[in-house]
Design a protein that fits this description.
There is one protein chain. The protein is elongated, with a radius of gyration of 31 Å. By secondary structure, it is an alpha+beta fold. About 30% of the residues lie in helices and about 20% in strands. The protein has a nine-stranded antiparallel sheet, with no helix packed on it. Strands 5, 10, 13, 16, 17 and 18 form a six-stranded antiparallel sheet that branches. Strands 1-2-3-4 form a four-stranded antiparallel sheet, with no helix packed on it.
Length: about 625
């Protein structure tokens, strides 16, 4: 390997190392939590004004008739939500969807841990809910439309299941009868159809809306904000807007940043999201903002004003996705035709909503063109193998197979460079201190022997975006959350749980906290194997002659070993598999070209002490 080749590899490795060290030592600042007013102290709003933007949920007075409102939302009657994947309830106070548990997910790895709660009623810590209603227009007062404390009546007494929608009704006593039908499918999508019937003698105008309100932020908000977007998402007709929690506008400036052609909008966390979806062909106006005084984050979606003549009725449908950011479920709702459906001209499923670009509610990152296919392949391999750890190793084999042509050229070039070392040494002796002459003669030699000195760097350069894409996949997609492999490795999205303290998983003791300084000392078995595999891979080639390069290359495997000790174990599994396959490829390809790497000789020489006086 020539000096240019070594320098390029060294520069690439150092650049990668600098990035890792920078994020380890200077991580981005977490989102600053806003001062929160206890939820029970926040007053509820009634129907917002039709003429202006929707008001913050904590600033308006309660709407609806006095006899049909509740003073304490917590005491309102409820109807049960019971589906294969969701448990919860709907409050008849305002008809809110405000209590939701995700049955397939636990807060911790322990199978006895609590299920994840996505929506929480007002009055409880971390209140988060979806509300619906009508803003009063001409001919209507605020007390003539249902508000957030209006007590709805249930038609029948059935539970909300995928087979049985529920119907709520409220009569304003002045000729308007409001009805709300709530349906839910077997996954995470609610369908809310609001209807108003005008039995009065005059026309009325109303503006239908839906909103999400969150009292404060989750405990881990901002923990991974440099890896995954957390906050508001708004998908317009041509553009998507991602707004972090700390970048949301105030109520005073929210109208200036509204999106008038939104297809869907909502709040997203690391693994969960609540998204309002407009009816097909009926985009809505979305405003997302935060009331810093009360610590309430709100996103409102409003349709155009509608007029209802005497004897007529009006219905508006809005969907709510409230659940886990599962690739398969979200892709199902996007309802894009598959390759085979396009090939044979098959139509989309008419029973499924078409949610434009919904798959992008998962944060695929800058390298989305790599992240998406990498995840798809990992997902399919996991479905085939049934184990995410082995699927990661299968993914590594597949990637290395795809890059094999480039790797072959690279290692062939490296083998030829080794054969040219005697000629290179003669050129250096003849050129002496004339660097320009040496470069010219080296280039002539490369051309004559058809050797590209930079060919060995291309596979390394390609590995960098692939590495970051896989890192994104492992830490962002929920499919890796609590995904087991073997032995003590029961969560591939978490750091290696082994260390010398528990004899690398043989004893039932916990390792040091990954965020503590002790975790950098008592590393797990996977980082240790990673360091050894990197070190062995280096020993396929003699150490560089330059002392500085020699020192850097000597320390690099062990620096990476300690640095990656706190990374997701699934990522370390990938890197180990990549090193082992690369080692085998390089050894076999270089041998096929007549050059046998002196592995044991290079290992032996690395332990020999230099004679005194050598430099």
């Amino acid at each position: 390997m020539g000096e240019q080749n070594k320098n390029l590899i060294l520069a690439t490795a150092l650049s990668f190392l600098v990035i890792l060290v920078w994020y380890a030592i200077f991580p981005p600042e977490p989102v600053e939590e806003l001062a929160q007013t206890p939820p029970q102290e926040a007053t509820e709003q009634g129907a917002p004004s039709e003429t202006g933007p929707l008001q913050p949920i904590a600033t308006e007075s309660a709407g609806g008739q006095t006899a049909q409102t509740v003073d304490d939302v917590a005491d309102a009657p409820r109807l049960t939500i019971d589906t294969p994947r969701l448990q919860g309830s709907v409050s008849l106070a305002g008809g809110r969807i405000d209590e939701l548990f995700l049955q397939d997910y636990r807060t911790e790895l322990d199978p006895e841990a609590d299920t994840v709660q996505l929506l929480t009623p007002q009055g409880q810590t971390g209140a988060f809910y979806a509300a619906y209603g009508w803003a009063a227009g001409e001919g209507l007062g605020a007390d003539m439309v249902p508000g957030f404390k209006t007590l709805w009546g249930q038609v029948g007494d059935n539970t909300l299941t995928p087979q049985t929608p529920v119907t709520l009704q409220w009569d304003n006593g002045a000729g308007l009868i409001f009805e709300r039908v709530i349906a839910v499918d077997a996954d995470f999508m609610f369908t809310v159809t609001q209807t108003v019937r005008n039995t009065s003698a005059g026309s009325v105008s109303l503006t239908p809306y839906a909103l999400l309100a969150r009292h404060g932020l989750p405990e881990d908000a901002g923990k991974n904000n440099w890896l995954v977007h957390e906050g508001a998402m708004i998908q317009g007709q041509k553009e998507r807007f991602d707004i972090d929690w700390d970048d949301l506008p105030t109520p005073a400036s929210r109208a200036e940043e509204a999106v008038n052609d939104a297809q869907w909008a909502g709040f997203t966390d690391h693994f969960w999201q609540s998204i309002l979806v407009a009816d097909t062909g009926k985009p809505f106006r979305v405003e997302a903002f935060v009331d810093e005084r009360l610590g309430i984050y709100q996103l409102s979606a409003r349709q155009q004003k509608q007029s209802v003549a005497p004897g007529q009725s009006l219905s508006i449908t809005t969907r709510l996705f409230a659940g886990a950011k599962e690739w398969e479920a979200i892709r199902h709702y996007q309802n894009d035709p598959s390759f085979l459906e396009r090939l044979f001209g098959l139509k989309q499923d008419p029973e499924r909503p078409v949610v434009k670009n919904f798959i992008d509610s998962i944060d695929w990152g800058w390298f989305f063109f790599l992240t998406k296919p990498i995840f798809w392949l990992l997902h399919e391999l996991n479905a085939l193998i049934g184990n995410m750890g082995w699927a990661i190793i299968g993914l590594t084999l597949t990637i290395k197979a795809l890059l094999l042509p480039l790797a072959f050229k690279s290692y062939v070039s490296m083998a030829k460079m080794k054969e040219l070392q005697p000629e290179m040494q003669k050129l250096k002796e003849r050129a002496g201190d004339d660097r320009q002459k040496l470069q010219q003669e080296m280039m002539a030699l490369y051309k004559k022997e058809k050797v590209n000195p930079a060919a060995g760097c291309l596979p390394i350069l390609l590995q960098i975006p692939i590495f970051f894409s896989l890192y994104k996949v492992i830490l962002v997609t929920i499919e890796l959350r609590h995904a087991p492999w073997l032995g003590p490795f029961q969560d591939l999205s978490a750091p290696d749980p082994t260390s010398i303290i528990n004899l690398f998983g043989l004893l039932p003791f916990a390792s040091p906290d990954p965020n503590s300084i002790l975790s950098l000392i008592f590393i797990g078995i996977l980082p240790l194997i990673l360091g050894i595999s990197m070190w062995l891979q280096q020993k396929l080639n003699p150490a560089p002659t330059d002392p500085t390069q020699q020192m850097i290359f000597a320390w690099m495997p062990w620096i990476f070993m300690f640095m990656l000790g706190s990374f997701a174990s699934g990522l370390v599994v990938y890197w180990i598999a990549n090193n082992v396959i690369t080692f085998a490829q390089q050894y076999l390809i270089m041998r096929s070209q007549g050059y046998t790497p002196d592995l044991f000789g290079n290992i032996s020489s690395s332990f020999k002490r230099k004679p005194k006086g050598d430099k």
